[in-house]
Structures are given as structure tokens and as C-alpha cells.
Design goal:
The protein is an all-alpha fold. 72% of the residues lie in helices and 0% in strands. The protein contains two helices and no strands.
Length: 75
């Protein structure tokens, strides 16, 4: 027998690939979450290095420390 199920776009009635959709959404949420964490950690480290008199190396250590603590809290 012939298969008469739609194979075109979803707008025309084709089935969605829900597992792939959920996987893509999870990756987007993780990228957004950890990207925002990195931006916040970078801003804190830059403020410490530029205005706190910490210098480059101590600001880099602070960046790694803040990102690691934030990563552990967001898991």
C-alpha cells in the first residue's frame, strides 16, 4: 500500500521530530545559561582587575574561580 502521510513542512501537516526539537532546545538553554554565566564572571574579573588593582593574573584566577563556582551552582 502507498504511504499517504504528509512529508512536507509542518504547516502542511507533516509530523514533527519531537526528540530532536527537545534536544535542540536543551542545547540552546545550556548555551544561554553558561554563556550568561561567563559574561557575568568576565565582568566581575574585569572590574576587579581594572578598578580593584588586582592586575591581569589575579583577575584571570578570579574569572576561573567565579565561573567554576557558578557552574557548580547551575548544574
Amino acid at each position: 500500500m502507498a504511504d499517504h502521510s504528509p512529508t512536507g513542512p509542518v504547516e502542511t501537516g507533516a509530523q514533527m521530530d519531537y526528540p530532536e526539537h527537545e534536544k535542540t532546545y536543551s542545547m540552546f538553554i545550556a548555551l544561554s545559561k553558561y554563556g550568561a554565566l561567563f559574561c557575568v564572571a568576565l565582568l566581575i574579573a574585569m572590574a576587579f582587575g581594572f578598578f580593584g588593582g588586582g592586575g591581569f593574573f589575579s583577575a584571570t584566577i578570579l574569572l576561573i574561580l567565579v565561573y567554576t563556582v557558578g557552574w557548580a551552582l547551575l548544574r
